[in-house]
Amino acid sequence: MSSSQQPHLVVFTGAGISAESGIQTFRAEDGLWADYRIEDVATPDAWEHDPETVLHFYDQRRNQIRYAKPNAAHNALANLEKNGFQVSIITQNIDDLHERAGSTDVLHLHGEILKARSSVDSRMLYPLPKGGIRMGDLCDKGSQLRPDVVWFGEAVPRYSEACEIASTADLLLVVGTSLAVMPAAMLVDLVPQHVERIVIDPAAESLGRSDIIRLAMPAGEGVPMLTQHWLRKGHLWVPETLYPHERLN
Ligand code: APR
Questions:
Q1: 3-class SS of residue 173
Q2: 92 lines ligand 1 (CB under 6 A)
């Protein structure tokens, strides 16, 4: 039990929770990494050799996100918090859909596309310049601004904070992530041993984790189903009988 004595739901989300809002995931057949090479747009090397292409890539991501709206899954989590549940969200997503839905405790493990940061000091964050980041937009140390996004090959500055949050979970809900990227995916194994873990993802079975309750359904269906159950009960109880055929060990 977390220190506040109120059961603590920790939710770990990935691109799949925003898929029903029209934001492309990464590793699907029609995902972003089918259209772009990671090494061309999402590495320090890409930034060094072709920053304009990198900025253009994130301009496009930002446009997609600006026109998207939170979906039933984001809304259900926000509603749970509004009803007095202690809900901490750790997201790999760079979009702001959890916040726009109304969630207040959101940690962005891989950064936030709607912020700019110094390219020499990851702690120096700036509001996004009007019209997006352009070459020549500088931080206070005189270095080029870049998107506040963690690239492949870079350290994840907020990882230890996320680990601390995970360690206080009474229940872990994982939504819409392939768990393919480290160290983020390790969070699933950093909750205390007795803590129940539930994954909601249409591809949940392919995760091959028989130690986790797997709900093979879209986030927009699975998350509201669970949160309604908790709201009715008034607590985070997960009855075995609710998913008898899903538990496979
Ligand atoms: N509801 C829930 N899950 C869904 C839905 C949906 N409607 N649609 C797709 N998914 C699932 C897919 O089955 C897949 O397991 O979302 C997952 C998306 O996986 P990835 O594309 O790998 O995205 P993610 O896990 O968030 O990627 C992690 O990789 O490229 C980097 O930095 C990027 O943060 C990202 C990280």
A1: strand
A2: yes
pLDDT score recorded for residue 94: 98
Closest CA to 220 of 17, 7, 65: 17
- Biggest distance spanned by C-alpha atoms of the chain: 60
> How far is the C-alpha of 63 from the C-alpha of 60, rounded, in Å?
5
Question: Which stretches within the chain are classed as H helix?
Answer: 32-35, 38-41, 44-49, 51-67, 72-82, 97-101, 159-167, 219-233
Determine if ligand 1 sits within 6 Å of the CB of residue 15: yes
Q: What is the mean pLDDT of each run of 10 residues along the chain (249 residues)?
A: 71 98 94 94 97 96 95 98 98 98 98 96 93 96 97 96 97 96 94 94 88 93 95 84 46
| Residue 8, φ and ψ in degrees, nearest 5 | -110, 115
Q: Is the CB of 207 under 6 A from ligand 1?
A: no
Other C-beta atoms lying within 10 Å of the C-beta of residue 189: 13
How many Å lie between the centroid of ligand 1 and the Cα of residue 143? 33
> What does the buried/exposed string (b/e) look like for 75-93 if buried means 16 or more CB atoms within 10 Å of the residue's CB?
bbbbbbbeeebbbbbbbbb
Q: So what's the pLDDT on residue 239?
A: 63
Record the tokens describing residue 238, joined without a space.
């997960």
User: What is the pTM for the complete model shown?
Assistant: 0.94
Residue 244: per-residue pLDDT: 44
CB under 8 Å to 193, separation ≥6 — which residues? none
Structural domains of the chain in order of their starting residue, each with its CATH number: 1-22+70-110+156-249 (3.40.50.1220), 24-67+115-149 (3.30.1600.10)
Q: What is the pLDDT of residue 211?
A: 85
